[in-house]
Amino acid sequence: MANKRQTSGRRQHERVTASDVARLAGVSPMTVSRVVNGETSVRESTRIAVERAIKQLGYSPNKAARSLASASPIKIGLLYSDPSSTFLTAMLLGMLEQARRSDTQIVVVACDDGPEAMGVVQGMIENGVDGILLAPPLCDSVRLFRVLREEDMPGVTIGASHPEEGCSSVSIDDYQAALTMTRHLLSLGHERIGFLVGTPEQSASQLRLKGFRAGMQEAGLEVDESLIVQGVYSYRSGFDGADQLLNLENPPSAIFACNDDMAAGAIAMAHWHRIEVPRDLTVVGFDDTMMATASAPEITTIRQPIADMSAAAIELLERNIRQQRNGAGVKLECLDLDYRLVARGSDSPPGSEQATGRQKQPQARVARRFRSSSSRKPPAR
Known about the structure:
Blueprint: H1 2-15, H2 18-25, H3 29-36, H4 44-57, H5 63-69, E1 74-80, H6 85-102, E2 104-110, H7 116-126, E3 131-134, H8 142-150, E4 155-158, E5 168-171, H9 174-187, E6 193-197, H10 203-218, E7 228-230, H11 235-246, E8 254-257, H12 260-272, E9 282-284, H13 290-294, E10 301-303, H14 306-325, E11 334-336, E12 340-342, H15 363-372
Parallel strand pairs: 1-2, 1-3, 3-4, 4-5, 5-11, 6-7, 6-8, 8-9
Antiparallel strand pairs: 10-12
Helix pairs in contact: 2-3, 2-4, 6-14, 7-8, 9-10, 11-12
């Protein structure tokens, strides 16, 4: 009879899982794994709670199973919040191809950066994700960084670098890229340049603005603050921002938009007012998404290798997850990929003569023509 009770007890203990321990201790299964593996990155109070739960439940981890854990399939969660649709498409293409090669499962969830984001992350963890990718604009979410730290969950940001928050990242040098584009515009002869800023909460927006200001300062030119217009990385904000710039008494001869969607909106506004791009106005963008080649004219832009960045982010997160499964501390990595300037048909010297053979038109004449044709606002789109 005693032997039967002992056998029953052993079977009961064998049925106890790391998830059971995690629920009792009030932590994530990943934290239980870290305690079992003797990692030093777990807070002492957390370690004590987990060890108490292990003892109470009689949990006995299977060493053979643990040794196989690093080779088991990986499940990654991707969180995004209303990015440009063209940016999201390029990002997903890179991710899906890399995930197919490495047999990694991706769970894609739309999530706003609000209090509900914490619940979304918790739900993904409960559903067994091993790590989380944060796409723009969530790549700058302090709230989500805090949740990932509390849950001991590996995370990688795409498009922003935050090593101080405990996240690996894949991005480009946004500051240097914007400086490169500004130098290009200055080399064409533009001195009065408008700048359409992206969503203010995103670090890339501020870095691109800083690169623009640095380029102007390098050329010995003061930045007219009336030429800096806030946008939100959308076509409509580029449309409205260009309206504001072109209605100035002394409008710019060129507009540098923080992404291609905004640049396309600026071109549409110029067309609405019968201002030709690039003969009468140069417009350039950033990212080199499908929008850059769908616009007329096609947009001169900075190529951010979005698909390559997302594929690299998958590889980096997989590496971080395996490090954690093997009981090693996660080694943070911040990868900077190369960018390049792609010249197309939306830029030219100010007042230049185009292949159509039309006469040069001084900026002052463009400004007068615009003011005479802008007595009413364009319709909302």
